[in-house]
Amino acid sequence: MDTGVNFYELKEELAGLGLNDPALVNGLRAALLDGKDWFCLETERFALDFARDGRGRISFVHCTGIHPHVNQFTMNTENVEYLKRDLLNLGFGDKVNTEMEKLIAARVPEFNLTTEQEYNGKKMDYTLHFKAGEQNEMYFFNRYDASLKNEADPTKDRMQTLYINKGHGVTAKEAFNLMEGRAVEKKLYTRDNEPYQAWLKLDFSQKDDRGNHKLLKFGEGYGYNLEKTLSEYPIKQLNDPEQKEALLRSLRKGNAQQVIIEKDGQSHKYYLVAEPQYKQVNIYDVNMKSVKRESLKQERKQQPDEDGPKKKQSRKQKIGA
Question: What is the domain extent for residue 216?
Answer without folding.
Answer: 92-222
